[in-house]
């Protein structure tokens, strides 16, 4: 029986040693799991930050593209306006047309029923000079004989 007790005692000692080793391994594994969870959380947060930055960059690119399209539209509209003004100037020099300044842009839009998608850029008078007596009183008072307005209106001149 002594031998059996000694054998049991040795086995029990081996089991206790193995249990201590396993407990140390479990503690080490738990520490590794906690560290892996921390790294995983850091990676998740970094991924969210990167996704947010990519979204901002995409929105910025869309804004740049929208601005570029608007700029191209304005450049085309400006070029068309310049072409129209050049045509008016060319017509003024050859066809009895005179460009005008100081007119009421909003009233011109309203009176001439110009749609909102068009912009009033210039106004020109087209036609032949006539007798100044046909002018309304308020305009006749504004034109003095021999003044630059009288000459500019071409009263008494023929084209």
Descriptive terms for the model:
159 residues; mainly alpha; two-stranded antiparallel sheet; 4 helices; 2 strands; 5% strand; rod-shaped; disordered C terminus
Question: Could you walk me through the main structural features you see in this protein, from its secondary elements to its overall organization?
Answer:
The protein has two domains: 2-95; 128-159, no CATH class. The relative contact order is 0.05. Helix content is 70%, strand content 5%. By secondary structure, it is mainly α. The radius of gyration is 46 Å and the shape is rod-shaped. It has a two-stranded antiparallel ribbon with strand order 1-2. Residues 147-159 have low confidence and may be disordered. The chain has four helices and two strands.
In short:
The protein has helices at residues 2-94, 105-111, 137-142, 148-153; strands at 97-100, 123-126. It is mainly alpha-helical.
């Amino acid at each position: 029986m002594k031998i059996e007790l000694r054998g049991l005692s040795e086995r029990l000692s081996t089991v206790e040693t193995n249990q201590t080793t396993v407990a140390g391994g479990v503690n080490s594994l738990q520490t590794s799991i906690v560290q892996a969870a921390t790294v995983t959380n850091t990676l998740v947060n970094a991924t969210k930050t990167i996704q947010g930055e990519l979204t901002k960059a995409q929105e910025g690119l869309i804004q740049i593209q929208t601005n570029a399209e608007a700029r191209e539209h304005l450049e085309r509209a400006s070029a068309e306006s310049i072409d129209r003004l050049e045509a008016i100037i060319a017509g003024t020099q050859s066809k009895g047309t005179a460009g005008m300044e100081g007119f009421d842009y909003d009233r011109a839009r309203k009176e001439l029923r110009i749609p909102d998608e068009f912009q009033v850029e210039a106004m020109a008078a087209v036609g032949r000079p006539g007798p100044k007596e046909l002018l309304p009183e308020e305009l006749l008072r504004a034109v003095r004989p021999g003044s630059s307005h009288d000459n500019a209106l071409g009263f008494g001149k023929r084209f």
